Amino acid sequence: MGLSNPIFANWYFHLPNFALAAVMYTLLGRALLGLIVEPDSQNYIWRFFCRLTDPFIAAIALVTPKAATPVVVWLFGVVWLFWLRVGLLYVFLILGLVPKAS
Protein backbone atom coordinates (compact mmCIF):
# COMPACT_ATOMS: atom_id res chain seq x y z
CA MET A 1 0.00 0.00 0.00
CA GLY A 2 1.98 2.96 -1.30
CA LEU A 3 1.27 6.65 -1.49
CA SER A 4 -0.64 6.08 -4.73
CA ASN A 5 -3.51 4.67 -2.66
CA PRO A 6 -6.58 6.97 -3.13
CA ILE A 7 -7.08 7.16 0.64
CA PHE A 8 -3.65 8.74 1.10
CA ALA A 9 -3.97 10.89 -2.02
CA ASN A 10 -7.26 12.37 -0.76
CA TRP A 11 -6.44 12.61 2.94
CA TYR A 12 -7.77 16.20 3.10
CA PHE A 13 -11.28 14.82 2.50
CA HIS A 14 -11.14 11.45 4.24
CA LEU A 15 -9.49 12.54 7.51
CA PRO A 16 -12.07 15.15 8.61
CA ASN A 17 -14.93 13.00 7.32
CA PHE A 18 -13.66 10.00 9.29
CA ALA A 19 -13.17 12.05 12.47
CA LEU A 20 -16.68 13.53 12.27
CA ALA A 21 -18.16 10.09 11.56
CA ALA A 22 -16.32 8.56 14.52
CA VAL A 23 -17.65 11.20 16.91
CA MET A 24 -21.14 10.99 15.40
CA TYR A 25 -21.38 7.22 15.81
CA THR A 26 -19.84 7.38 19.28
CA LEU A 27 -22.55 9.87 20.29
CA LEU A 28 -25.17 7.51 18.88
CA GLY A 29 -23.59 4.64 20.82
CA ARG A 30 -23.61 6.76 23.97
CA ALA A 31 -27.31 7.49 23.50
CA LEU A 32 -28.12 3.80 23.06
CA LEU A 33 -25.86 2.69 25.89
CA GLY A 34 -27.34 5.42 28.10
CA LEU A 35 -30.65 3.58 27.97
CA ILE A 36 -29.23 0.61 29.89
CA VAL A 37 -26.30 2.07 31.88
CA GLU A 38 -26.55 4.37 34.89
CA PRO A 39 -25.14 7.88 34.28
CA ASP A 40 -22.52 7.45 37.03
CA SER A 41 -21.51 3.90 36.01
CA GLN A 42 -17.86 2.89 36.35
CA ASN A 43 -18.05 0.66 33.25
CA TYR A 44 -14.93 1.35 31.19
CA ILE A 45 -16.81 1.43 27.88
CA TRP A 46 -19.28 3.98 29.24
CA ARG A 47 -16.45 6.10 30.64
CA PHE A 48 -14.68 6.00 27.24
CA PHE A 49 -17.83 7.13 25.43
CA CYS A 50 -18.31 9.94 27.94
CA ARG A 51 -14.69 11.07 27.81
CA LEU A 52 -14.66 11.15 24.01
CA THR A 53 -18.00 12.89 23.52
CA ASP A 54 -18.16 15.33 26.46
CA PRO A 55 -16.33 18.19 24.63
CA PHE A 56 -18.75 17.92 21.70
CA ILE A 57 -21.75 17.72 24.00
CA ALA A 58 -20.61 20.90 25.75
CA ALA A 59 -20.57 22.72 22.39
CA ILE A 60 -23.92 21.26 21.34
CA ALA A 61 -25.49 22.18 24.69
CA LEU A 62 -24.83 25.84 23.91
CA VAL A 63 -27.35 25.77 21.04
CA THR A 64 -29.80 23.27 22.56
CA PRO A 65 -32.58 24.38 24.92
CA LYS A 66 -31.68 23.95 28.58
CA ALA A 67 -34.91 22.02 29.22
CA ALA A 68 -33.72 19.15 27.01
CA THR A 69 -32.71 15.93 28.73
CA PRO A 70 -29.14 14.69 28.22
CA VAL A 71 -30.17 11.94 25.79
CA VAL A 72 -31.93 14.54 23.62
CA VAL A 73 -28.75 16.63 23.57
CA TRP A 74 -26.77 13.55 22.51
CA LEU A 75 -29.22 12.82 19.69
CA PHE A 76 -29.15 16.47 18.59
CA GLY A 77 -25.39 16.05 18.47
CA VAL A 78 -25.74 13.12 16.10
CA VAL A 79 -27.97 15.23 13.83
CA TRP A 80 -25.64 18.25 13.97
CA LEU A 81 -22.61 16.12 13.14
CA PHE A 82 -24.47 14.42 10.28
CA TRP A 83 -25.30 17.79 8.74
CA LEU A 84 -21.75 18.97 9.31
CA ARG A 85 -20.54 15.97 7.30
CA VAL A 86 -23.06 16.77 4.54
CA GLY A 87 -21.86 20.39 4.55
CA LEU A 88 -18.25 19.25 4.33
CA LEU A 89 -19.10 17.08 1.32
CA TYR A 90 -20.94 20.00 -0.28
CA VAL A 91 -17.96 22.33 0.19
CA PHE A 92 -15.64 19.78 -1.37
CA LEU A 93 -18.12 19.31 -4.24
CA ILE A 94 -18.19 23.05 -4.90
CA LEU A 95 -14.39 23.23 -4.81
CA GLY A 96 -14.10 20.19 -7.09
CA LEU A 97 -12.03 18.29 -4.54
CA VAL A 98 -14.26 15.27 -3.97
CA PRO A 99 -12.37 12.04 -4.68
CA LYS A 100 -13.45 10.35 -7.88
CA ALA A 101 -14.94 6.86 -7.69
CA SER A 102 -12.76 4.30 -9.37
Protein model, in words:
By secondary structure, the chain is an all-alpha fold. The protein has one domain (6-95). It is 70% helix and 0% strand. It contains four helices and no strands. It has helices at 6-9, 11-33, 44-61, 70-95. Helix 2 packs across helix 3, helix 2 runs antiparallel to helix 4 (70-95) and helix 3 crosses helix 4 (70-95). The longest helix is centred in the C-terminal third of the chain and has 26 residues, at 70-95. It is elongated, with a radius of gyration of 17 Å.
In short:
The chain is mainly α.
Mean pLDDT: 91
Radius of gyration: 17 Å
Main sheet specs: none
> What is the succession of H and E elements?
HHHH
SS content category: mainly alpha
Would you count the extended β strands for me? 0
C-alpha geometry: elongated
Poorly predicted regions = none
Give the termini separation: 16 Å
- Domains (count): 1
**What's the number of helices?**
4
Give the % helix: 55-70%
Q: Percent of residues in beta strands?
A: under 5%
